[in-house]
Design a protein that fits this description.
Layout: E1 20-23, E2 28-31, E3 34-35, H1 36-42, H2 45-54, H3 60-72, H4 78-85, H5 93-107, H6 119-141, H7 154-163, H8 169-182, H9 189-199, H10 204-215, H11 223-234, H12 240-249, H13 267-282, H14 287-303, H15 310-320, H16 327-348
Amino acid sequence: MPGEVQRGLEDVVALESRICFIDGQQGRLIYRGFDIRELAAGSTFEEVSYLLWYGRLPTRTELAGLRQRLEALRSVPEALSRELEALPVSANPMDVLRTAVSALAVFEPEETAPGPSSIGGAQRLTAALPTILGEFQRRRAHLPPLEPRPNLSHAAYLVYALLDREPSELEARAIDVALILHADHELNASTFAARVTASTLSDLYSAITSAIGTLKGPLHGGANERVMEMLEEIGSVDRVEEVVKGKLARHERIMGFGHRVYKVEDPRATILRGWARRLGEAKADLRYSELLERVVQVVHREKGLYPNLDLYSGAVYALMGIPRDLFTPVFAASRVVGWTAHVLEEYDDLRLIRPTSSYVGPTDLSYVPLGERG
């Protein structure tokens, strides 16, 4: 008989991994042995991507080589662009992203085969996701067609693709840090979905399509959008107490607080809070930082909850002018590195992921022929 059911697989150890470690008691996030605080302070998204894929930090030459590969892989096939143009501009951007990744596998089958060679597909997807999002956003926002910009870093290119402008040095670094912080987070729902798909020996692109579909769910992705909606509802600092306590009284969830793993403040939230304030100061617009500071005080006093990454990421994106329904796709444009790293690891130690369930239905019913059922 199956053992005790752990709803949501909470605290169930499903596999061994060398990619990411979360110390929920101490509030630490580790990528391949390196604390996220050090990586956010000194590295770049490209460097962290290399680390997650290859298991070590790159040399200067290796990092330059990866940057060149990502730049070379940004463009998408014309046939895919035409397919994206046929989608309605009213489409959910996550649906567009999911469709595009699935379709890209058809145009580039050589990148899809499961195994070590899938590293090429991992780099291709990482490079192409900003282009896919940029082409869709530009069409619906009536912006000029996307042009190659090989001189831009991955983070700066993402901003350019979405907003048709180069970011300032501060903005580029803020987005770079946000991408680093979102790159991986152990066996979250979308990463687990990707690994389950990969464990069947399906291809990399199918695994990432599974991950994107999972991230679309509002209980996984989209929390930062809900945070921004809450800030709009609050409007001013003097209304924080009233609105937050009202939501708590109605047993509504305050998005951006609490975490399944962290029992203290999410270290990513600590880092991104500072970047949200820096961006606000540079733009002479501290309303988000001031509102969030007061919300944190009230929620912690009333419920003892700590902020997570989602509380501040939306403010960073909003201050840069990124449309709210692109917040989760931007998340995907970062997490694709972690997803693909986990898929590659799954291929290295393949075992079909097949948990069991505790059946609670009847077992002794007798079949009644159709003609005798009245």
